[in-house]
Amino acid sequence: MAGSTGNANLVSSGVQYALFIVFTGAVFFFIEIGRRSLLINSALGMGICQFVICGVLCSYGTYVPGGVLGNLNVIVKVTDGRAHTVIAFVYLLIIVYAVALALVAWVYAAEVWSLETRAMGMALASKRIGFSISHLAYLFPSLW
User: Fold this and answer.
1) Is 78 a domain residue?
2) Is 29 strand, coil or helix?
3) Arithmetic mean of pLDDT, 134-140
4) pLDDT single digits (tens) 5-42
5) Which parts of the chain span the membrane according to its record (predicted)?
6) What element of type H or E holds 62?
7) Does 61 map to a domain?
8) Residue 49 burial (CB < 10 Å; 0-12/13-18/19+)?
9) Which residues constitute the domain of residue 127?
10) DSSP string, 63-95
11) Cross-strand bridge partners of residue 62
12) Does a structural domain hold residue 2?
């Protein structure tokens, strides 16, 4: 990862999860800012981050047929400061996602159900989210 050695994967994963947990606390912004503007701006922010990452990888990346360091899941290598740009925008993408879009399923699922059926509705919603995550993990094992 950007020329790092040692436990770079472990450290980057730890930073990713720490950022996600810290910025998920932004659930209070839903009330202050308003849901619509927060969701639209976070979706635009995520799109910008993805375009920057794609632009750097496509413009300055080098295709490695055997995978970077033998990892067949990583087939594009970027060096110098450009690699740090990709890492920074991946972390920024995680922050923008955690601020609004990660909370949508829980906020809206709780509001859709009436008080009498909310417990069963939230149970079904969380079961569906778990099913979707396991379905993605089964279909796309290269993401892990």
Assistant:
1) yes
2) helix
3) 76
4) 555 556 666 777 677 777 777 767 666 777 778 888 88
5) 14-31, 38-63, 83-109
6) strand 62-63
7) yes
8) buried
9) 113-144
10) E-TT-BTTBTT--EE--THHHHHHHHHHHHHHH
11) 77
12) no
